[in-house]
Design goal:
Blueprint (H helix, E strand, L loop, with lengths): L8 H18 L11 H24 L4 H30 L2 H15 L3 H7 L16 H25 L2 H23 L5 H5 L7 H11 L5 H9 L8 H21 L7 H4 L1 H11 L5 H7 L2 H8 L1 H19 L5 H26 L11 H24 L9 H6 L9 H5 L8 E3 L11 E5 L1 H4 L2 H9 L6 E4 L10 E3 L4 H16 L6 E4 L2 H7 E4 L6 E3 L4 H17 L5 E4 L12 H5 L13 E2 L3 H14 L5 E4 L2 H4 E2 L2 E3 L1 E2 L2 E2 L9 H10 L1 H14 L26 E3 L6 E3 L1 E2 L6 E3 L3 E7 L9 E8 L2 E8 L2 E9 L3 E6 L10 E8 L16 E8 L1
Parallel strand pairs: 2-3, 2-5, 5-8, 8-10
Antiparallel strand pairs: 1-3, 4-6, 6-7, 9-12, 11-12, 13-14, 15-25, 16-19, 17-18, 18-25, 19-24, 20-23, 20-25, 21-22, 21-24
Helix pairs in contact: 1-2, 1-15, 1-16, 2-6, 2-10, 2-13, 3-4, 3-16, 3-17, 3-18, 4-5, 4-18, 5-6, 5-9, 6-7, 7-10, 10-13, 11-13, 16-17, 22-29, 25-27
Length: 829
């Protein structure tokens, strides 16, 4: 510690290593997958320093000057932030196409009043551009910090006035800490309302949305700041102990950065570890020898400019990557680091420092003048935002000849959404409008890389050849046995897979086409190790490809004797590359960035297709079709020709690309369909009622059918709805009424997929016989019940009755629901 007791020297070292961890992480250094945890350390530092300053002033004067506090924060944070805005605006204006420039200006607007975390939270939709092309993405942490500065001083003042004694304040802070930490944990377990998440995020993927919410939302971060606040009231005795605790804190931070990653489960709770490390480091002063290391000039300077360095490092990386690509050489890494440090050092010394208030030093600009200037900047940004949105991202920056090429698209910014191959088609259902009949000619399943063939299939196979085609890409994961998604609830994916299997097996001999973004899905899923029975990450190499092929073969055996056609990987670009349309719209100031008609795809697309071809060549019922053959030759792939653009983004086919592929394999598809028709037994084929209103309905329930919450096969008593995914109870009991033909066909099990509000003791009766009476709780749960088949009634009604112990009435008096149980679907077997 220096002679100035307000200044703690070793915190500069902590700031220095934290910002370095963040920068190296953003540069793509694979050795520190948890480098982003440097931001969590900054939150602890902020909590400590703010609490210490408030507490010190209160103890000395008995009051705290909020006006001076906010003025100091504004002078410390805002001028450099707005200078960085100017830097990104100029570069974005010169090189960003309209879609990226619009996103930049929108994020700048929200960042200007500390709300960028909400903006980026709302941007988690499927077609959102890569995070690596958002120059202001890093301002989410500044927004959280500024929101903390807004609320925390008022909260601490209130605690100080009411509780007065330090021990009671500590108790209150510990309570806030525990509440925030518990909030993180229980939300990770799924005990958080989809409706609540829906206020912030429109993404239908609940798991991804929850992770985003935990990352960007202040309540999930409060415990990190409070840890720092608690340090003000904690001290350790003994120089040797304090020295060891300081080193222990540093070790915990370093281990966390090397061992944790963005894919670590419960990361929103486990980031407690680097926060504890930061706390131990801050509140324990090192010995003289260690202090000399901490006080090396490189660390002192880096620590002092850490805020400025954090502000400028990410835009520099984004714009450099936009022009030259994201694969950095060692020399490029060094040059980028030098540029970041040089710019930050200049800004800190000649812009940021002169604007800050110091004792015995006249202000360069008055407080009123500074605030007026900031408000003026916000108004200017707001007007620019309106202008940019109204003029399609200032499309006038683009060469007129390029605009002429895109006139066939009503809105170039929305090209990806309107022109990808599945635009306008359902994720689960029949393509086209053929008359309903009892058979399906072919079934397509997978993720969006199955969906993007919808336009071509509808145009060629449905409209031209009148072939009834069923498409399923409702959930983006590998729909194969013993594979789970890293983020999507496994009960949901397994339920969907079982639904698909029942649909397929109810249509014997119908060929099944499986299409995925194979490499992408492998990176997002885990496969079961048959030896250890545990789930492990796929390796994106021949070992992983072999495991994948084995699971495909295993899946084919479940589907009885039929043709399984594997649609290989279509060529795709690196996640950091721009689509053809975005490249086409790069402003005229960078004419050397004109898009090319050909591109070099990721090597992984060729590798997996080659493996599929060789592996499935030995099977008679599993076939392989390579869509890359349609676009690629000699490792180069065509992206457009004669004005026809084949890709809507970096990896999805456009409608024209979809049509091109289906035209090229039209004869193969007809061959598989005709083969299945020849081998058909001629029996009537039933389409089972599975999650779609397009399926045929009857009044009787058959064994092992999934009957959803809006099926006509059930009569609902005391239920509200149906809503989109379920129907809520609307009394202290509810009933499902159904008919069966032959109870001898049933084995005596019932599976119910449901959500429960809070904890309920639910009594369930089947035809007045109690089959369940116990606690149920949680969301996305499956309840299995057992009954005696003799208790069923043939050809007349059967009643499944639910009685609830703790039904809750919504606050809104017009809401007729009684929130106990939300019914999704049922399987009676």
């Amino acid at each position: 510690m220096t002679k100035n007791s307000d200044y703690i020297e070793h915190i500069d070292f902590l700031r220095a290593i934290s910002v370095i961890f963040v920068i190296l992480f953003h540069l793509g250094n694979p050795l520190i997958p948890g480098g982003f945890l440097g931001v969590d350390v900054f939150f602890v530092i902020s909590g400590f320093l703010i609490t210490r300053n408030i507490n010190k002033e209160l103890l000395h004067t008995g009051k705290f000057n909020l006006k001076n506090f906010y003025i100091r924060r504004i002078r410390r944070l805002i001028p450099s932030l707005f200078l960085m805005f100017l830097f990104t605006f100029i570069l974005g204006f010169l090189i960003f196409p309209p879609s990226l420039f619009t996103g930049l200006i929108e994020s700048m607007f929200f960042s200007s009043f500390a709300a960028s975390n909400f903006y980026f939270l709302s941007q988690t939709n499927y077609f959102d551009v890569s995070a690596n092309l958002k120059p202001l993405l890093h301002t989410w942490s500044l927004a959280i910090e500024e929101q903390f500065y807004l609320f925390y001083p008022l909260t601490f003042l209130l605690l100080f006035k009411i509780l007065k004694k330090a021990k009671y304040i500590i108790f209150a802070l510990v309570t806030i800490f525990l509440l925030s930490l518990i909030f993180n944990f229980i939300s990770s377990e799924g005990y958080i309302s989809e409706k609540f998440i829906g206020y912030f995020i429109s993404d239908p993927n609940f798991s991804d949305s929850l992770i985003s919410l935990q990352f960007f939302f202040l309540p999930f971060r409060v415990f990190e700041f409070v840890i720092g606040g608690l340090l003000v009231f904690i001290s350790f005795k003994g120089k040797i102990l304090k020295n060891y605790l300081n080193l222990l804190g540093l070790v915990i931070i370093i281990i966390s950065v090397f061992c944790f990653s963005s894919e670590t489960e419960y990361m929103s709770t486990l980031n407690l570890f680097p926060c504890i490390g930061a706390a131990l480091f801050i509140c324990n002063e090192p010995n003289e020898f260690i202090s000399k290391i901490y006080n090396l000039n490189i660390f002192k300077i880096t620590g002092k400019i850490s805020y400025t360095l954090y502000l400028f490092h990410w835009p520099i990386i984004v714009f450099y990557s936009f022009i030259y690509g994201f694969e950095f050489t060692v020399i490029e890494n060094i040059l980028l680091l030098l540029a970041m440090f040089l710019i930050s050092y200049i800004v800190y010394n000649y812009f940021e420092t002169p604007l800050r208030a110091y004792k015995n030093k006249p202000l360069l600009i008055s407080n009123h003048g500074l605030i007026s200037l900031i408000l003026l900047c916000i108004i200017i940004i707001s007007n620019i935002k309106t202008s940019v949105i109204n003029s399609d991202g200032w499309v006038w920056r683009v060469d007129n000849k390029k605009i002429e090429n895109l006139k066939l698209f009503e809105d170039p910014k929305k090209y990806q959404i309107k022109n990808w191959g599945a635009a306008g088609y359902e994720k689960y259902g029949f393509l086209g409008k053929l008359e309903k009949r009892n058979s399906i000619d072919m079934i397509w399943m997978g993720d969006s890389h199955a969906g993007h063939y919808s336009f071509g299939l509808d145009s060629i196979m449905v409209k031209k050849h009148k072939k009834k085609t069923f498409m399923s890409y409702k959930i983006s994961t590998l729909h194969l046995p013993d594979i789970i998604h890293k983020r999507i609830d496994s009960t949901k994916t397994k339920s969907h897979l079982n639904s698909l299997i029942r649909l397929i097996n109810s249509n014997p001999k119908t060929p099944v086409f499986i299409s995925h973004f194979w490499n992408g899905e492998m990176a997002s899923t885990k496969v079961k190790n048959s030896k250890t029975n545990s789930y492990e990450n796929f390796k994106i190499d021949s070992t992983g490809y072999k495991e994948l092929c084995e699971k495909i073969v295993q899946f084919s055996k479940i589907l009885s004797k039929r043709d399984i056609i594997i649609i290989g990987e279509n060529p795709f670009k690196s996640k950091h590359d721009l689509s053809y349309v975005d490249n086409l719209l790069v402003p005229k100031y960078f004419s050397n960035m004109n898009p090319q008609s050909y591109f070099t795809p990721s090597a992984h697309s060729f590798a997996i297709n080659s493996y599929f071809r060789d592996y499935f060549n030995k099977f008679t019922n599993i076939h392989f079709i390579n869509p890359s053959d349609v676009f690629c030759e000699d490792n180069m792939c065509i992206e457009q020709e004669n004005g026809e653009i084949y890709f809507s983004d970096k990896d999805h086919l456009s409608k024209l690309g979809s049509l091109k592929v289906i035209k090229s394999i039209e004869k193969k598809l007809l061959k598989f369909i005709n083969k299945s028709a020849t081998n058909s037994t001629g029996n009537n084929i039933n389409i089972v009622d599975i999650d779609t209103n397009n399926s045929s309905e009857s009044n009787f329930i058959e064994p092992n059918q999934i009957i959803n919450h809006n099926s006509k096969k059930l009569k609902f008593k005391n239920w509200y709805g149906p809503e989109a995914k379920h129907r809520w109870s609307c009394d202290n009991y509810s009933e499902l009424i159904f008919n069966i033909k032959d109870k001898k066909k049933f084995k005596g099990t019932i599976e119910i997929n449901h959500d429960v509000l809070g904890k309920q003791v639910v009594k369930i009766l089947l035809n007045d016989s109690i089959i369940y009476n116990n606690n149920i709780s949680g969301r996305n749960k499956k309840l299995t019940l057992y009954f005696t088949p003799k208790s069923l009634n043939n050809m007349t009604k059967n009643t499944l009755r639910f009685e609830y112990s703790n039904p809750m009435q919504p606050r809104n008096s017009k809401d007729r629901r009684v929130l106990a149980l939300a019914f999704k679907n049922i399987i009676i077997n």
